[in-house]
Design brief:
246 residues; alpha/beta; six-stranded mixed sheet; two-stranded antiparallel ribbon; 10 strands; globular
Length: 246
């Protein structure tokens, strides 16, 4: 309940304050790229999961989860595994600085989590899954990518001692925020955990007959049953989504 209430409060505060991802950002942040070396986590193609961090205070953390849609079957996930949304092979040594934000927390440790599992960090299969009519096998380890990242942050960067933690993300990363906020809150009983999802709420409701999509976004038909998405930070977009979908 603590985390759920915090989601609403933090979202309202951020919306009113028009907080941008570049607020309180050092022009040249000392980023580190951390490669997970366990046997549990991986991207779709089997390359290791990695995350970016700007170390700061151990009392406050900001964790941003990247978005990028989803894949819904072996063929789509195979295609995805050949891109940066399914493989860490070509990830840069630094992430775009605009993805780091302390959300008003002083000198926080800032974490950016890329996205390479196609399931909003929910997938888990013990063994690689074969792609039909192909010799390729895919690795569905999204859940472990998240869990192992938290373990490293707790072990090496002081997350277990944090007093304030903001979990945020956009689109599929926004959905990840909703899905994993309570889990993070349980993992950190000493901390006040806030959720700040952006465009991550997907209403389980079809469009009314005759309503045509007019937004400049293209999502696969696999999510046709839940087409409208809500920008929690922006009431203007919430109203637009209601108009287009209901």
């Amino acid at each position: 309940m603590k985390a759920i209430v915090a989601t609403v409060v933090a979202s309202v505060l951020l919306a009113c304050g028009r907080v941008a991802f570049t607020d309180r950002l050092d022009a040249t942040p000392p980023q580190k790229l951390i490669v997970l070396e366990d046997n549990e986590s991986s991207c779709l193609d089997g390359t290791p999961y990695k995350f970016y961090i700007i170390p700061g205070s151990t009392e406050s953390f900001s964790i941003f989860i990247n978005g990028g849609g989803w894949c819904y079957n072996e063929a789509l996930c195979l295609t995805r595994s050949k891109t940066d949304l399914g493989s860490s092979l070509h990830w840069n040594t630094t992430a775009p600085p605009g993805l780091f934000n302390c959300y008003g927390l002083e000198n926080c440790t800032q974490v950016f989590m890329p996205y390479c599992d196609g399931s909003s960090f929910t997938s888990h299969r013990d063994d690689p899954w074969p792609v039909p009519n192909s010799s390729v096998k895919l690795h569905f380890r999204g859940k472990m990518n998240l869990e192992q990242t938290m373990k490293v942050l707790m072990r090496d960067y002081g997350l277990s001692n944090a007093k304030q933690v903001v979990l945020s993300g956009g689109s599929a990363g926004g959905l990840s925020t909703y899905l994993h906020l309570d889990r993070l809150s349980t993992l950190l009983p000493k901390a006040q955990v806030y959720g700040a999802p952006n465009a991550g709420y997907f209403l389980d409701h079809g469009r009314m007959p005759g309503v045509k999509p007019t937004l400049p976004f293209s999502y696969p038909e696999g999510i046709a049953s839940v087409p409208p998405f809500f920008f929690t930070h922006s009431a203007m977009h919430d109203i637009l989504m209601h108009y287009l979908s209901l």
